[in-house]
Amino acid sequence: MPPEPVSTDKTAPPQGRRGGGSRLHGLGPVLGLALLLVAGTLLNSDFASFDNLMNVLTRTAFIGIIAVGMCFVIISGGIDLSVGSMAALIAGCVILLMNALGEQGLQPVLVVALGMGFALLLGALFGLAHGLLITRGRIEPFIVTLGTLGIFRAYLTYFSNGGAITLDNALSDAYSPVYYAALLGVPVPVWVFVAVAALGGLILNRTAYGRYVQAIGSNEQVARYAAVDVDRIKVLTYVLLGVCVGMATLLYVPRLGSASPTTGLLWELEAIAAVIVGGTALKGGAGSITGTVVGAILLSVISNILNLTSIISVYLNAAVQGFVIIVVAFLQRRRR
Amino acid sequence: MTHPTTCPTPRRTALLATAAAAALLALAPAARAQAPAGTVNLGVAIPAATHGFTGGIVWWANEAKKELEKTHKNLKVTIKTAANAGEQANQLQDLVTANKINALVIFPFESAALTKPVQQVKGKGVYVTVVDRGLTDTSAQDAYVAGDNTAFGKVPADYIAKALGGKGNVVALRGIATTLDNERMDAFNAVMKGYPDIKLLDAKYANWNRDDAFKVMQDYLTRFKQIDAVWAADDDMAVGVLKAIDQAKRTDIKLVFGGAGAKGMVKTLMDGADPRIQANVSYSPKFIYDAIKLTAEARLKGDKLPPTTIIPSVLITKDNAKDFYFPNSPF
Asked: InterPro entries, from UniProt (chain B) (predicted)?
């Protein structure tokens, strides 16, 4: 047994593992994705078509944007299990608000703008509540967000009366370009995804805040002694994630124009899986946004390939996804 | 809480109360048998409203309670909603011990897990009607009321085959892998066997979910250049399918057949708002209403229900759509 791997993960400061480590880290998911792309192309010639790739990237946008926020939370040593329910509740509330404003006779475009702002605000507030409960309330993040997971979805079910909350048609028309329009041939959600990921990478790697997040996840006590305002930094990671969920939701609502109790089901696991497959350790300390983005794309490519082919029994879809996740995680481990 | 000095008395009272309750419980079945003929204390155990269909189940159960309690003086209906099989089993015990029901209408959360608990309830002399999701042992029930899953697959297949003139390409979306979904798919395939020129290109699971249906349909559209009709097999999934077709700007699809008669789709059908939506098949959560009504009225007269009652799944078209439109229902 080589002595190094035993304790380095937890105690080594993030700087120590950057140089050579992170570059190798990125290889697992990239390699996995490359293999999948080759497999997809061999299995179906339409897989590599521009339209299909855009479909895949657009549907990745929701989970991808949330995963970028989740990446910060996980690097800081936290977790958020509520993001799927949160997205669903935000979607429901935004639709209710927009319908109410629409009935007042406001301009549809203005209503949509207000709704989008409300989505971000609501996300930030939910994130703030999480952050305060975790830092000031000193409750485990797992417990806090397990609680809100139930709370958010129950309120959505209550607001929707167990059915669906649907956006008025006029508003739906005004809102739909946010999902369906394209800029230079690339759909809007993909642009937003790229922007969020770039900004996330910048914040994580090039700002003091980003370094504090990594330091806290690596060793919270040491960070405290180094005069890092641990509580404030932690609260901010949850607010950041909340805003990301709000952003994903404001892209999601125009797609189908409705929210129901099945909206966003299991998104939390997909987002966490994207972060972990992307090479971030679940116990925190270090991770990368690039890896997270690749991880998110990888997960949706799997289901896309399964939909485009029919070699594997449909009963086994979930198994294929599970196998790929484990294999990619295994590739990571070997290179650490 | 209780002050220490006053402790002995309440404790003794509590003991006495427990003993009395136990005695009452032991007597309960006998007492029930002696209850005045025609008094029905009906318990209803259903899943909680977590998606459109169960939302409808809860709504229709409450409608039944409202209407039946108004028309029948000696009927009491108690409704319990459960979020999982374990909770539902606990509620069954409560219904028997606390609510003292003498009739039960249950929409089992899961078939296998609820069979034993229901058997126990029946063993205590309660009349049991099981709805939709059956039990693994039918001796645990007195009556079974369900929607017609075979017709749910057969009706759309017949309609699509006729609409296409017996020739064309069809894709299907399936629900969640369950026996109920298999029954529907088998019925669909059985009809299509009679039309060798109709090609079922593929059938994938979209979990009765709009988002999943959107993705599955996008991928079908990438994969197949010519699709004539889509069997979406559920109205929620049909919503996602239509959006995906619109986004891809495809005009080859002439027909999208949903299912279950959700109010939004029935409205679209009534208004003729979308040429691709021409028909639907009923599978309304209203069958819980029917089951409660049938059970209550039979028991009030001291009658039994036939062992199996199938609420037919029928074709809904523009002509009869108004009979299937319930604007107040959440589904």
From this structure: Peripla_BP_I (IPR028082), SBP_2_dom (IPR025997), TAT_signal (IPR006311)
Residues B130 and B157 grouped into a single domain: no
pLDDT digits (tens, 9 = 90+) for A170-180: 898 899 899 98
Strands (DSSP E) contained in chain B are 40-47, 75-82, 103-106, 127-131, 143-147, 168-174, 198-205, 229-231, 255-257, 280-281, 308-311, 315-316
Q: Are residues B95 and B132 in the same domain?
A: yes
Residues B27 and B99 in one domain: yes
C-alpha to C-alpha distances, A331 to A20, A25, A44, A237, B270, nearest whole angstrom: 16, 9, 26, 28, 56
Q: Are residues B275 and B302 in the same domain?
A: no
pLDDT tens profile A238-297: 999 999 999 999 999 998 888 888 888 889 999 999 999 888 888 888 889 999 999 999
Does B128 lie in the same domain as B70? yes
State the smallest CA–CA distance between residue A49 and chain B in angstroms.
Answer: 9
Chain B residue closest to A187 (CA)?
B247
| CA dist., res. B65 & res. B74, Å (int) | 13
Segments forming the whole domain that contains residue B105: 11-145+285-311
Question: Measured between beta carbons, which residues in chain A are less than 8 angstroms from residue B54?
Answer: 162
CA A174 centroid distance within chain: 26
Whether pTM > 0.90 for this model: the answer is no
In a domain, B5, yes or no: no
Look at residue B39 and tell me if it is in a domain. yes
pLDDT digits (tens, 9 = 90+) for A148-204: 999 999 999 889 887 788 888 889 889 989 998 989 989 999 999 999 999 999 999
For residue B219, give the nearest of A263, A307, A317 by CB distance. A307
Angle at B221 between CA B216 and CA B227, to 5 degrees: 110
Q: Which residue has the tokens 């990619």?
A: A328
To the nearest whole Å, the CA of A139 is away from the closest chain B CA by 26
Task: Name the residue of chain A whose CA is nearest to B201's CA.
Answer: A310
B251: confidence class by pLDDT, cuts 50, 70, 90: very high
Same domain for B186 and B271:
yes
Q: Do A256 and B243 touch (CB under 8 A)?
A: yes
What total of structural domains would you count in chain B? 2
**Looking at beta carbons, which residues of chain A come within 8 Å of B208?**
262
**Chain B neighbors of A307, CB-CB under 8 A:** 204, 215-216, 219-220, 223
A22 Cβ under 8 Å from any chain B Cβ: no
Phi, psi of B266 (to 5 degrees): -65, -35
Where is A258: in which H helix or E strand?
Answer: strand A258-259
